[in-house]
Amino acid sequence: MKILAVSDEVLDMLYSPAVRERYPGVDLLIGCGDLPYYYLDYLTSALDAPMMYVLGNHDHGPQYTVDGQILTGVRGGLNIHGRVVREQGLLIAGLEGSMRYRPQASLMYTEAEMRCQILRLMPQLLWLKMRHGRGLDILVTHSPPFEIHDRTDLAHRGFQSFRILLERFQPRYMLHGHIHLFQRGSQVTRYHETTIINVYPLHLLMLKQEDE
């Protein structure tokens, strides 16, 4: 299974008629936030693959297409914030936003507020773990976990509650954005049973058949 994940930056090589030649056979698209709806909409249409996404702290709406249409979400995509979905045999959950560094701003959360978002997911995750022997395959977030790929400033600090979620449910992968890298190429870190990937600005994840 081939998964193309993107975050934080519109890439000309993807927003191009040649994208299907560059990335043939993509089975699933994942958006990790801070990307315009029209871009994600284009990818899901051009690659003919379903799109699962979360919003980043800069994804305020409404957004507009070049011809003036108002977009309130990704056409052909599914916002998975606060949800667990089953897609092509994979259990995928999403959590949007960043650490709150401005009062009252949307798509930002304090540590306590993010913990509440996770607690709302718990019943479904526990039920799935009982039924399938696992609670989650892929966790999709905008922000990273605390002290893994994050920075020391509040705006780019990761969530401690993400580490607890990873320890409790041990998803196979966690995909996040938000942390821009000076050198292109994904950051990959192993934490307990989870491979954590900073996808900025893209990451191609290949799942072998035995992983599905």
Describe this structure in words.
By secondary structure, the chain is an alpha/beta fold. Helices cover 22% and strands 26% of the residues. The protein has four helices and 15 strands. The strands form four sheets. A six-stranded mixed beta sheet has the order 7-8-11-12-14-13, covered by helices on one side. Strands 6-3-2-1-15 form a five-stranded mixed beta sheet, covered by helices on one side. β13 and β14 form a beta hairpin. The longest helix is centred in the middle third of the chain and has 22 residues, at 111-132. The model has no long low-confidence stretch (mean pLDDT 93).
List keywords for this structure.
alpha/beta; 212 residues
Largest sheet: 6 strands, mixed
Strand order of the largest sheet: 7-8-11-12-14-13
SSE sequence, one letter per element: EHEHEEEEEEEEHEHEEEE
Mean pLDDT: 93
Helix coverage percent: 10-25%
